[in-house]
Amino acid sequence: MTAKKKAKISGPSKLTVELCVGSYLAQQFGKTVSLVATGAHPTSGFDSFLQQSPLDVFPPEFTLWHKVPTGIVLQVVTPFSVSAHFAAAESVNAITVHDADGVHQVKVEQAPNAVQQHLLDLRRDVPSGKRTKRTTKRQRPAAILAAASALVSGCVQVWVHLEPILKPWCGSGSVFPSSNLQSLWTQGPTGKPYDPYGINSLISAIQADAFFTSCPEAKGLRLGHFQAGGEIQIVDDLTRHLCPCAS
Fold it and tell me: Which parts of 45-116 are beta strand (E)?
Protein backbone atom coordinates (compact mmCIF):
# COMPACT_ATOMS: atom_id res chain seq x y z
CA MET A 1 0.00 0.00 0.00
CA THR A 2 1.50 3.33 -0.99
CA ALA A 3 1.33 6.36 1.27
CA LYS A 4 -1.75 8.51 0.77
CA LYS A 5 -0.91 11.60 -1.23
CA LYS A 6 -2.70 14.88 -0.67
CA ALA A 7 -2.70 18.20 -2.45
CA LYS A 8 -4.29 21.44 -1.34
CA ILE A 9 -5.65 24.03 -3.72
CA SER A 10 -5.40 27.55 -2.30
CA GLY A 11 -8.36 29.88 -2.23
CA PRO A 12 -11.15 31.08 0.05
CA SER A 13 -11.98 27.45 0.92
CA LYS A 14 -9.07 25.06 0.57
CA LEU A 15 -9.81 21.89 -1.34
CA THR A 16 -8.09 18.62 -0.51
CA VAL A 17 -7.36 16.21 -3.34
CA GLU A 18 -6.27 12.67 -2.46
CA LEU A 19 -5.43 9.47 -4.26
CA CYS A 20 -8.50 7.27 -4.46
CA VAL A 21 -8.93 3.48 -4.78
CA GLY A 22 -11.05 1.76 -7.41
CA SER A 23 -11.54 -1.19 -9.69
CA TYR A 24 -11.00 -0.76 -13.43
CA LEU A 25 -12.39 -1.83 -16.78
CA ALA A 26 -10.90 -0.85 -20.14
CA GLN A 27 -12.42 -1.44 -23.58
CA GLN A 28 -11.49 -0.44 -27.11
CA PHE A 29 -14.14 0.73 -29.57
CA GLY A 30 -12.52 1.02 -32.98
CA LYS A 31 -9.83 3.66 -32.49
CA THR A 32 -11.10 4.88 -29.12
CA VAL A 33 -10.07 3.35 -25.78
CA SER A 34 -12.30 3.85 -22.74
CA LEU A 35 -11.17 3.43 -19.11
CA VAL A 36 -13.77 3.19 -16.33
CA ALA A 37 -13.03 3.34 -12.59
CA THR A 38 -15.64 2.31 -10.01
CA GLY A 39 -15.60 2.32 -6.23
CA ALA A 40 -17.31 3.82 -3.20
CA HIS A 41 -16.87 6.44 -0.46
CA PRO A 42 -18.14 6.38 3.15
CA THR A 43 -20.25 9.53 2.67
CA SER A 44 -21.70 11.65 -0.11
CA GLY A 45 -19.86 14.69 -1.41
CA PHE A 46 -16.66 13.12 -2.75
CA ASP A 47 -15.79 14.06 -6.35
CA SER A 48 -13.74 11.36 -8.09
CA PHE A 49 -11.91 11.76 -11.40
CA LEU A 50 -9.30 10.13 -13.61
CA GLN A 51 -6.39 12.39 -14.57
CA GLN A 52 -4.22 11.62 -17.57
CA SER A 53 -0.49 11.76 -16.85
CA PRO A 54 1.51 14.55 -18.55
CA LEU A 55 4.22 11.97 -19.37
CA ASP A 56 4.78 11.61 -23.11
CA VAL A 57 4.06 7.86 -23.25
CA PHE A 58 1.63 5.69 -25.17
CA PRO A 59 -0.74 4.40 -24.12
CA PRO A 60 -1.19 7.27 -21.66
CA GLU A 61 -1.14 6.55 -17.94
CA PHE A 62 -3.90 7.66 -15.55
CA THR A 63 -4.27 8.45 -11.86
CA LEU A 64 -7.48 8.10 -9.84
CA TRP A 65 -8.11 10.99 -7.43
CA HIS A 66 -10.96 12.25 -5.30
CA LYS A 67 -11.77 15.67 -3.87
CA VAL A 68 -12.71 15.52 -0.19
CA PRO A 69 -16.09 17.09 0.68
CA THR A 70 -15.96 20.30 2.72
CA GLY A 71 -19.64 20.87 3.54
CA ILE A 72 -22.51 18.88 4.99
CA VAL A 73 -22.62 15.29 3.73
CA LEU A 74 -24.91 12.29 4.03
CA GLN A 75 -23.55 9.49 6.20
CA VAL A 76 -24.22 6.80 3.63
CA VAL A 77 -21.90 4.70 1.49
CA THR A 78 -21.90 6.34 -1.95
CA PRO A 79 -20.72 4.45 -5.06
CA PHE A 80 -18.94 6.28 -7.87
CA SER A 81 -18.12 5.58 -11.50
CA VAL A 82 -15.85 7.83 -13.58
CA SER A 83 -14.33 7.40 -17.02
CA ALA A 84 -11.68 8.71 -19.40
CA HIS A 85 -10.87 7.95 -23.02
CA PHE A 86 -8.20 8.53 -25.64
CA ALA A 87 -7.62 7.92 -29.35
CA ALA A 88 -5.52 4.93 -30.44
CA ALA A 89 -4.58 4.11 -34.03
CA GLU A 90 -3.68 0.52 -33.08
CA SER A 91 -4.92 -2.08 -30.62
CA VAL A 92 -3.97 -1.34 -27.01
CA ASN A 93 -3.22 -4.26 -24.69
CA ALA A 94 -3.10 -2.60 -21.27
CA ILE A 95 -3.32 0.75 -19.48
CA THR A 96 -1.30 1.76 -16.41
CA VAL A 97 -3.40 3.26 -13.60
CA HIS A 98 -2.04 4.75 -10.35
CA ASP A 99 -4.12 5.00 -7.17
CA ALA A 100 -3.73 4.84 -3.38
CA ASP A 101 -3.34 1.06 -3.61
CA GLY A 102 -0.37 1.25 -6.00
CA VAL A 103 0.15 0.75 -9.73
CA HIS A 104 -2.25 -1.39 -11.75
CA GLN A 105 -2.00 -2.85 -15.25
CA VAL A 106 -5.54 -2.83 -16.63
CA LYS A 107 -6.11 -5.20 -19.54
CA VAL A 108 -7.90 -3.64 -22.51
CA GLU A 109 -10.70 -5.76 -23.94
CA GLN A 110 -12.14 -5.30 -27.41
CA ALA A 111 -15.74 -4.11 -27.15
CA PRO A 112 -18.31 -6.90 -27.68
CA ASN A 113 -19.83 -7.20 -31.15
CA ALA A 114 -23.23 -6.30 -29.71
CA VAL A 115 -21.91 -2.93 -28.50
CA GLN A 116 -20.25 -2.15 -31.82
CA GLN A 117 -23.42 -3.14 -33.67
CA HIS A 118 -25.44 -0.90 -31.36
CA LEU A 119 -23.23 2.07 -32.25
CA LEU A 120 -23.56 1.25 -35.91
CA ASP A 121 -27.36 1.10 -35.61
CA LEU A 122 -27.41 4.47 -33.88
CA ARG A 123 -25.25 5.88 -36.65
CA ARG A 124 -27.80 4.75 -39.22
CA ASP A 125 -30.52 6.59 -37.30
CA VAL A 126 -28.78 9.97 -37.65
CA PRO A 127 -30.66 12.13 -40.22
CA SER A 128 -28.83 12.35 -43.53
CA GLY A 129 -28.34 16.10 -43.08
CA LYS A 130 -26.15 15.42 -40.05
CA ARG A 131 -23.54 13.40 -41.93
CA THR A 132 -21.76 13.47 -45.24
CA LYS A 133 -22.41 9.92 -46.30
CA ARG A 134 -25.19 7.43 -45.64
CA THR A 135 -24.18 4.27 -43.83
CA THR A 136 -24.96 0.92 -45.43
CA LYS A 137 -25.28 -2.49 -43.81
CA ARG A 138 -22.12 -3.59 -45.57
CA GLN A 139 -19.98 -1.11 -43.66
CA ARG A 140 -18.18 -2.63 -40.68
CA PRO A 141 -18.79 -1.17 -37.18
CA ALA A 142 -15.03 -0.63 -36.85
CA ALA A 143 -15.07 1.73 -39.84
CA ILE A 144 -17.82 3.83 -38.26
CA LEU A 145 -16.04 3.89 -34.91
CA ALA A 146 -12.79 4.96 -36.56
CA ALA A 147 -14.55 7.98 -38.02
CA ALA A 148 -16.05 8.84 -34.63
CA SER A 149 -12.59 8.58 -33.08
CA ALA A 150 -11.48 11.59 -35.10
CA LEU A 151 -13.63 13.72 -32.79
CA VAL A 152 -12.03 12.13 -29.71
CA SER A 153 -8.57 12.85 -31.10
CA GLY A 154 -9.63 16.45 -31.74
CA CYS A 155 -10.74 16.83 -28.12
CA VAL A 156 -7.29 15.72 -26.97
CA GLN A 157 -5.65 18.37 -29.17
CA VAL A 158 -8.02 21.02 -27.84
CA TRP A 159 -7.26 20.07 -24.23
CA VAL A 160 -3.51 20.39 -24.88
CA HIS A 161 -4.05 24.02 -25.95
CA LEU A 162 -6.85 24.85 -23.51
CA GLU A 163 -5.19 23.78 -20.26
CA PRO A 164 -2.34 26.37 -20.55
CA ILE A 165 -5.02 29.05 -21.03
CA LEU A 166 -7.12 27.99 -18.04
CA LYS A 167 -4.31 27.86 -15.47
CA PRO A 168 -3.20 31.52 -15.71
CA TRP A 169 -6.82 32.60 -16.19
CA CYS A 170 -7.88 31.25 -12.79
CA GLY A 171 -4.48 31.37 -11.06
CA SER A 172 -4.47 27.66 -10.21
CA GLY A 173 -1.68 25.17 -10.79
CA SER A 174 -4.16 22.32 -11.28
CA VAL A 175 -7.18 22.22 -13.59
CA PHE A 176 -9.22 19.05 -14.01
CA PRO A 177 -11.98 18.15 -16.53
CA SER A 178 -14.49 17.94 -13.67
CA SER A 179 -13.55 21.39 -12.28
CA ASN A 180 -16.36 23.93 -12.15
CA LEU A 181 -15.29 27.05 -14.07
CA GLN A 182 -16.98 29.49 -11.71
CA SER A 183 -15.36 27.82 -8.68
CA LEU A 184 -11.93 27.96 -10.34
CA TRP A 185 -12.36 31.69 -10.91
CA THR A 186 -13.80 32.62 -7.50
CA GLN A 187 -11.07 30.68 -5.68
CA GLY A 188 -8.46 32.61 -7.66
CA PRO A 189 -6.71 35.84 -6.72
CA THR A 190 -8.60 38.46 -8.76
CA GLY A 191 -11.49 39.10 -6.37
CA LYS A 192 -13.68 40.13 -9.31
CA PRO A 193 -17.05 38.51 -10.13
CA TYR A 194 -17.16 35.51 -12.45
CA ASP A 195 -20.20 36.91 -14.27
CA PRO A 196 -19.41 38.84 -16.35
CA TYR A 197 -15.75 39.72 -15.67
CA GLY A 198 -14.33 36.20 -15.33
CA ILE A 199 -16.37 34.86 -18.24
CA ASN A 200 -15.35 37.67 -20.58
CA SER A 201 -11.73 37.26 -19.50
CA LEU A 202 -11.82 33.55 -20.39
CA ILE A 203 -13.52 34.14 -23.74
CA SER A 204 -10.94 36.79 -24.63
CA ALA A 205 -8.04 34.51 -23.65
CA ILE A 206 -9.38 31.67 -25.81
CA GLN A 207 -10.11 33.86 -28.83
CA ALA A 208 -6.65 35.47 -28.61
CA ASP A 209 -4.85 32.11 -28.72
CA ALA A 210 -3.44 31.24 -32.16
CA PHE A 211 -4.88 27.71 -32.06
CA PHE A 212 -8.46 29.00 -31.62
CA THR A 213 -8.29 32.25 -33.62
CA SER A 214 -10.00 30.95 -36.76
CA CYS A 215 -12.31 28.44 -35.05
CA PRO A 216 -16.06 29.26 -35.37
CA GLU A 217 -16.84 27.53 -32.06
CA ALA A 218 -14.30 29.75 -30.29
CA LYS A 219 -15.41 32.90 -32.10
CA GLY A 220 -19.00 32.11 -31.17
CA LEU A 221 -18.43 31.90 -27.40
CA ARG A 222 -20.85 34.19 -25.52
CA LEU A 223 -21.72 35.06 -21.93
CA GLY A 224 -24.84 32.92 -22.16
CA HIS A 225 -22.80 29.77 -22.70
CA PHE A 226 -21.21 30.18 -19.24
CA GLN A 227 -23.97 31.79 -17.19
CA ALA A 228 -26.28 29.77 -14.93
CA GLY A 229 -28.25 27.35 -17.11
CA GLY A 230 -25.79 27.61 -19.99
CA GLU A 231 -24.19 24.60 -21.67
CA ILE A 232 -20.66 25.31 -20.39
CA GLN A 233 -20.33 24.94 -16.62
CA ILE A 234 -17.30 22.68 -16.09
CA VAL A 235 -13.96 22.39 -17.87
CA ASP A 236 -15.06 19.27 -19.75
CA ASP A 237 -18.09 21.13 -21.15
CA LEU A 238 -15.76 23.78 -22.57
CA THR A 239 -13.36 21.21 -24.01
CA ARG A 240 -16.15 19.33 -25.77
CA HIS A 241 -17.63 22.55 -27.12
CA LEU A 242 -14.27 23.42 -28.69
CA CYS A 243 -13.43 19.91 -30.01
CA PRO A 244 -14.29 20.85 -33.64
CA CYS A 245 -11.51 23.47 -33.49
CA ALA A 246 -8.99 20.68 -34.08
CA SER A 247 -10.50 19.64 -37.41
Answer: 47-52, 62-67, 78-87, 94-99, 102-110
Note if the pTM is more than 0.90.
Answer: no
What is the C-alpha separation between 54 and 173, in angstroms, rounded?
Answer: 14
Q: Alpha-carbon torsion 89, 90, 91, 97, what sign? A: negative
Residue 122 has pLDDT above 70, yes or no: no
What is the structure's pLDDT at 8? 42
Alpha carbon separation from 180 to 43, 152, 157, 191, 226 (Å, rounded): 21, 22, 21, 17, 11
Residue 24 corresponds to which amino acid?
Y
- Given a cut of 70, whether residue 11 has pLDDT beyond it is no
Cα(82)–Cα(65) distance, rounded to whole angstroms? 10
Parallel, antiparallel, or unpaired: how do β-strands 94-99 and 102-110 relate?
antiparallel
- Angle 218-219-222 (CA atoms, 0-180°, nearest 5)? 85
90-119: pLDDT as tens digits: 889 999 999 999 999 999 998 887 776 776
